[in-house]
Amino acid sequence: MNKHVLLTMGLIATIVSMLLVGCAPQASQPSETGTPGSQTGATPAAAGDEVIKWTCQSVWPASLPRQQFLVEQWVKDVEELSNGRIDIDMYVAGEIVPAFECYEAVRDGTLDMSHSWAGYWIGKFPAATMFAATPAFMDVVGYMTWMYQGGGKELWQETYGNDLKVIPGGWLWAEGGGWSNSEITSLEDFAGVKYRTVLIWGEILSEMGAAVVTLPGGEIVPSLERGTLDAAEFSTPTSDWGLGFHEVADYMYFPGLHQIAGFNEVLLNNDSFNALPADLQAIVVAASDLGGVKAASAWVMSDCEVISKYDDYGTTFMKYPVEMQQDIMDRFIEKYDNYDDALFQKVWQSQKDFLQVYTPYKDLQTVEAQITVE
Questions:
Q1: Backbone angles phi, psi at 244, to 5 degrees
Q2: Residue 98 dihedral angles phi and psi, to the nearest 5°
Q3: How far is residue 117's CA from residue 64's CA, in Å, rounded to a whole number?
Q4: Deepest in the core among 52, 214, 227, 259, taking most CB within 10 A?
């Protein structure tokens, strides 16, 4: 058995053992953030082992601990799996560079790596939206399957080219469908509404007469409170709760058709990654998958639990009518089919090819019974 096989088997065994430990009952709370150069307490490297120091900054502010938890989990797993041979100093958004400059900072070597979201780079790479999130063309299982088995990861790297290395940095389930102080039952109801959103959903709403603006997460609730916004969408129920959307808007809409599933990303400086020995390169990549499962599943659990808090507060839950949902999805498909970017169309064709295989089977397995437990 050659060294490569032994290394691979050893790495898999380590990951499996960590997953088993992770299944034991324990609190899954995001750790404290915002401490410059915070570290995760990894096992010290054995005497004589070279310790490789990396600098990481995320695009997430300390006010979004669930997002920051994703990168903290990744850093923790890298340090533990490497037995301390990789030591990562971790910073939140703005502590080294502004959040929206993380891509360039990793590319140019100011940072060794960053945890971010591909949607922030659509000005450079229109196709990046395809890796940031998917509308309700497919569910989260389908999106993960396309990413890992349908060529998504490879197309993601092709989109960024040789600037840096990108790997998935944790998945997330559906966002909420938005917040408003008035009832919305059709796309026509968005006419004249000052609405915060991003990506192609914003283009669709603009065409329906909405005044669409893009604001950072921390500015949305104050804008709703002042009346400079009428309605908005931002993230999942957990993140929205932390920012206080329920305090300034009466109606919480579902489903989040515009983003039914999404991925974050790990950006790696080429020189930093290529300088690692083969076993540490494998650990960096494997830790992304491992940490993504642990952190993202904790996020889903948090989303499920926070709904009762909204209910207790008095938030009114609203579901978009079926006819409106169909109208939204038809418009998304039209937008995607006509998007004028060659790489976007290449990725979209990959997703369409996958959907032709995935959707018929998903439909067969869709349970139509209502499940009620007491």
A1: 85, 25
A2: -55, 150
A3: 14
A4: 259
94-98: long-range contacts, CB 8 A cutoff, minimum separation 24: 94/61, 95/36, 95/57, 96/55, 96/57, 97/57
Closest CA to 355 of 106, 181, 152: 152
> Is the four-CA dihedral 207, 330, 240, 98 of positive or negative sign?
negative
Strand partners, 231: 180, 195
pLDDT of 1 reads 46
- Going along the chain from its start, the domains and CATH numbers come out as 178-259+314-340 (3.40.190.10)
Single pTM value for the model: 0.84
The reported pLDDT for the residue numbered 11 is 41
User: Of residues 336 and 291, which shows the higher confidence score?
Assistant: 336
Pairwise CA distance, residues 312 & 310, whole Å: 5
Ranking 37-41, 83-87, 161-165, 304-308 by mean pLDDT, the lowest is 37-41
d(CA 139, CA 117): 19
Share the mean pLDDT of the chain. Answer: 88
